[in-house]
Write a structure and sequence with these properties.
Structural class: mainly alpha
Radius of gyration: 39 Å
Shape: elongated
Distance between the termini: 85 Å
Largest sheet: 5 strands, mixed
Helix content: over 70%
Number of helices: 29
Oligomer: single chain
């Protein structure tokens, strides 16, 4: 780095623009003018060139608040510069006045002032032309005059193109031009200008400029959804990325983690996911996504040393409710944790819940493949061949439909191999699976070798470039006396260009805060809607209960009461006429007996409706098996069932037992009466504090029946589930069957 003592024009020049670019400040702090004065000190100075320079420096500080006092002081400085015949200062003051008017929202006045500054261009020495040109392009860009902005961007490019001493301001001009094209919606042009800037920055001997320009290019690639290109660039920037934390660092670490994961490098994927989790100022959603991903990657690495700590953080931060990917990862993390803790029932329930999650048209086939493979493996470990094959079949269908990365294919192949070995499967199938696994491992190995080759090639090019830079530096030292004054002017471009960067950063921060506030309002609205929904459910439940009580009362009064009255009358008559000849006593006795039989049957039916006999005598599990047996006996459809647990349901509250039985009964009745199904799959799993009910049929579906006014039975079913604080998910498409998934929390047992 060349050192020099600033001349007076250079001193003025640096005072005007030093605050505009943080990167420029880092590179030029060894040649800065004396510390700036505050506004109170400046106000006390007599009108002079020194006061003008300090005032310009103060006004151009990004933290300055524009006021009418500043306008008056600038007007005083303009008049003094004109009286002193300092045209260089006049142009600078006019440009600064234009920036001040923009800050106060006076665009018309800003335009008038910048046009006056523009008229001084032919009169300025070369060392100040760049400063004013940069101000012109910046102001015209902010007042949204694209024609003038482009004109001065081109002017700066023409001024610096064939002058090596202006390579740094040229780079900043191209970067500003790229940002301008992004705002205009021309991503291809933006990429073209930034590639030119990157090439020039690489040719310079300024490591800081080259680093900043590469980060700018990585930002652009992310904005253009060019994640693979961004990944290759970010790998080279990892040391700088970790030492320069900004608002894009979380996103950059995420890109590194995802791409290493797709290559099967789970160690590096976990490393950058954990780095992203530990960054400061990370949102709750980002924390949730990263900790869930850490659990998944730790499971793949079979490293359970911190699993309990990860699981506690997983429960703390939850999930992003608006992202299907996030919700599925949350349930997968639960499943892997329970599997690692040897709790297969909970693991299976979490896998099933993860697979059935849906949000609109969002799809995450990669996660679904992993979910189904994990679920199939669990059943295979329990020697439940049918269930294992069923979920492997679903996983295979996803693999055929979607193009998966080799790492996911290998994951599926490993699961299939493990299942075959556990169940003693077909040797030919096992051999085929092993061949596929070897092929996938070879693919990943080749990809890793290609990555290593690219990295070695990059390192070689970097070393070669360093040697070239060293040679160029020696040549520049020979020419430094000729280029000394030219390099002094180069710093102007750094400072002027960074004003736009700082303004854009401030705008991005404001937009971020607004988005954050909108998210908080949205979540509050959702909570209010959920509370209102709960109130509606309770009102509906109360109404249904009252109607049921009324129906039973009416039936007892109208049917049983009437028949009892007639029976009583006949018996009374029989008592009076029992010895009378020709009285028809035998006939009346027969009528009374029939009536009493009908009464008995009616009372029995009502009793069965209120409490099933099998449930009362033999318990919940026996009652469910009896219900399934009755369906099978009818020979109308084939039924498969899986029932796990339910050995001690006598400890359940009676009302919970009856309500759960009614819910299952209603679902099966709907499948039999309305679905016209040929096959029915029933799965009931009792967990520690909850139970899962899953019923699937291959019938006509329910899409055409979804109507807010139809289905009293369905409304009663929904109300019963809500009353038990459960969750209900029903989905069906025409001619594609229906599935029902219900989760019910088991009430705590009250001790005597």
């Amino acid at each position: 780095m060349i050192r020099f003592k600033p001349t007076l024009p250079t001193f003025v020049f640096l005072l005007l623009f030093w605050v505009a670019c943080p990167s420029y400040w880092a590179m030029a702090q060894d040649r800065m003018p004396p510390p700036a004065k505050d506004i109170a000190e400046i106000r006390q100075l007599y009108p002079s060139t020194e006061k003008t320079m300090y005032l310009l420096r103060y006004v151009r500080n990004p933290k300055t608040i524009y006021t009418e006092e500043l306008k008056n002081l600038l007007e005083e400085a303009l008049q003094h510069s004109k009286n002193s015949a300092r045209e260089d200062l006049v142009a600078s003051v006019l440009a600064t006045q234009a920036i001040t008017e923009l800050g106060l929202g006076n665009r018309a006045q800003a335009l008038t002032l910048i046009q006056q500054a523009e008229s001084y261009l032919p009169k300025l020495p070369e060392q100040l032309i760049m400063s004013v040109l940069n101000d012109l392009s910046r102001v015209y860009s902010r007042i949204e005059d694209p024609e003038k902005s482009i004109y001065y961007y081109n002017k700066i490019e023409a001024f610096t193109k064939d002058k090596p001493q202006y390579i740094i301001p040229r780079v900043f001009n191209l970067r500003n031009r790229s940002n301008f094209e992004i705002r205009r919606g021309n991503p291809a042009k933006a990429k073209e200008y930034l590639q030119m800037a990157l090439s020039l920055a690489k040719q310079s001997d300024n490591a800081s400029l080259y680093k900043d320009t590469r980060f700018a290019y990585a930002n652009l690639l992310v904005n253009l959804d060019k994640e693979k290109e961004a990944f290759e660039l970010l790998k080279e920037l990892v040391p700088d990325l970790e030492n320069n934390i900004n608002d894009r660092t979380v996103q950059f670490f995420g890109i590194l983690a995802r791409n290493y994961e797709s290559l099967g490098d789970y160690k590096n994927a976990f490393l950058y996911t954990e780095k992203a989790f530990n960054l400061p100022n990370v949102s709750t959603q980002q924390l949730a996504n990263n900790i869930n991903k850490m659990i998944l990657l730790a499971y793949r690495l079979q490293d359970f040393s911190r699993f309990d700590d990860f699981f506690a953080l997983h429960r703390k931060y939850g999930m992003d409710q608006n992202s299907l990917h996030s919700k599925k990862m949350y349930e997968m993390a639960e499943a892997y944790y329970y599997e690692a803790k040897n709790q297969p029932k909970k693991a299976k329930a979490s896998f099933i819940k993860a697979y059935r999650l849906k949000i609109g048209t969002q799809q995450v086939p990669g996660l679904d493949l992993e979910i189904l493979s994990g679920l199939a493996n669990l059943y295979a470990s329990e020697s439940k061949r049918d269930s294992s094959d069923y979920y492997f079949k679903l996983a295979g269908a996803i693999l055929k439909k979607h193009d998966m990365p080799p790492a996911l294919k290998l994951l599926y192949s490993n699961s299939l191999k493990t299942a075959h070995q556990a169940n003693g499967g077909n040797p030919d199938t096992l051999i085929k699976s092993l061949e596929q696994q070897i092929q996938l491992k070879d693919t990943l190995y080749q990809m890793a070798m290609q990555q290593a080759s690219k990295e070695l090639e990059t390192k070689y090019k970097v070393n070669e470039k360093e040697q070239q830079l060293a040679l160029a530096q020696k040549q520049q030292e020979v020419q430094k006396l000729e280029l000394q004054q030219q390099k002094q002017r180069n710093w102007i471009i750094f400072i002027g260009s960074a004003v736009v960067v700082l303004l854009l950063s401030g705008l991005a921060y404001i937009l971020f805060q607004r988005k954050k506030q909108a998210g908080i309002l949205h979540r509050a609205t959702l909570n209010n809607l959920k509370q209102q929904h709960q109130l509606d459910l309770m009102n509906t439940l109360t109404e249904v209960q009252e109607q049921e009580k009324k129906r039973i009362a009416t039936q007892l009064h109208d049917e049983v009461g009437a028949m009892l009255s007639i029976a009583k009358l006949n018996i009374n008559t029989l008592n009076e006429e029992v010895f009378a000849a020709g009285s028809g006593a035998n006939k009346k006795l027969e009528v009374a007996q029939n009536l009493l039989g009908n009464i008995s049957e009616t009372v029995r039916n009502i009793s069965h409706a209120l409490m099933p006999i099998a449930l009362e005598k033999y318990g919940f599990k026996a009652a469910i098996l009896d219900l399934i047996s009755a369906i099978k006996t009818a020979n109308r459809l084939t039924v498969e069932h899986v029932i796990e647990g339910f050995e001690h349901t006598e400890k359940w509250p009676p009302q919970f037992t009856l309500s759960t039985y009614r819910i299952i009964q209603e679902i099966l009745n709907n499948a039999i009466k309305h679905a016209e199904a040929k096959h029915l799959f029933i799965q009931l799993i009792e967990l520690e504090n909850s139970l899962t009910i899953y019923v699937e049929d291959d019938g006509k579906g329910i899409a055409q029946e979804r109507d807010t006014t139809a289905g009293a039975g369905m409304k009663l079913l929904q109300t019963n589930i809500a009353y038990l604080s459960g969750k209900l998910e029903i989905e069906g498409k025409p001619n594609e069957g229906t599935f029902v998934l219900i989760e019910l929390p088991i009430p705590p047992i009250k001790l005597p």
